[in-house]
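Table S2 (text version). Query chain:
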Amino acid sequence: MASSVRDHRGRPVAVVTGMGIVTSLGRGKAENWAGLAAGRSGLKRITRFPTDGLKSTVAGTVDFMDVSPYSAHDLSLAMAMAAVEEAFGEARIETAMFPGPLIVATPPSEFEWPLLRQLYEGSPEPQHGGYRRLLAAARTGNYRGMARHLRFASIADGLKEKFGCSGEPVSICTACASGTTTIQLGMEAIRRGQADAALCIGADATVHPEGLIRFSLLSALSTQNDPPEKASRPFSKNRDGFVIAEGAAALVLESYDAARARGATVLGVVRGCGEKADDFHRTRSRPDGAAIIGAIRKTLGDAGVAPDEIDYINAHGTSTPENDKMEYLSLKAVLGDHLARVPISSNKSMVGHTLIAAGSVEAVFSLLTLRNGLLPPTINYDVPDPDIPLDVVPNAARAAAVKTVLSNSFGFGGQNACVVFSGEPA
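Corresponding structure-token output:
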């Protein structure tokens, strides 16, 4: 279908017609928005596994979804399915065959220690048996229960089996920028006329011992465990790291004309996306912020939006000392003096850092902010950092008429992506 509604570069306009979400605040948009608006934290002490000896003992866990036996793979898939079901309901998609590509942000697939232990248990040659079974799984594909935990695309395969899509599903992992990357890929497919719709999903359930230990070794996690709900303190002077969390979100993207033709409600417009990579360090950003600055500038250029048109920012805002300061300096470089007049929030202060899913989760929150005219707060902002002079909507939500939102996602390995959302086109 050729679109008669075009953007500033003559391209078809991509809009959002359905959204679904699961985070530590609850299942669905209603529970999540109520928690955000109230400034409620979903962070809690970890009870899923022993935390003795760990420096970080809090997380944004999704304990209310029963996945037994537990595995990060199965919880990620369950959360993603719940998010898609909600998004399809809002978009009024009845069919089991989604009329467009399925694009999924998912963590690298690997066994966790409990699964590895199960693999070796009962083997007559414990030093070799598990390894041989792994090889057999990879070679024959007969070990379905095992193989699905080892295939990077297995979550996308599970979603395709349930919901369908056009062509093979696409699985991506661009670190903590992944969720935003799915939206960019969906938007670009619609702009090119390759599809009238795209299903964009991010899911992550990395709250397990390996996940905590790895990020702890990188000195990335907060160790302010008491009380748990105070651990995430984005942009505060006393911030000391992020709080790892679980979550999933799904967005149904459509061309504006396709959505209008079938009578779908437009929840927001994907005005533009941009990305730029940084090869400076495996975890740190280049000190001059060149890649982050470049990603923001490319996003505004792609969206056809001037810096002074941004009236709200959904920050990456991880609560790590370096990331928060780098985000401020990069925004200042692009928005200049206008930044002082732009309210900014970090949802991670309440739901934690959902890692691969963060861009998807924060996209849903950005669109809910547009619809509801209420800016979620950045909670735990009690000790302002004089080196980061931002209007972070401190501690309590604020009513505001929002027209254009910039949502930032910056990932380890220098993978940076941003997206601009606005209301329905004229």
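Notes on Table S2: The chain has 13 helices and 15 strands. The chain has a mean pLDDT of 91.
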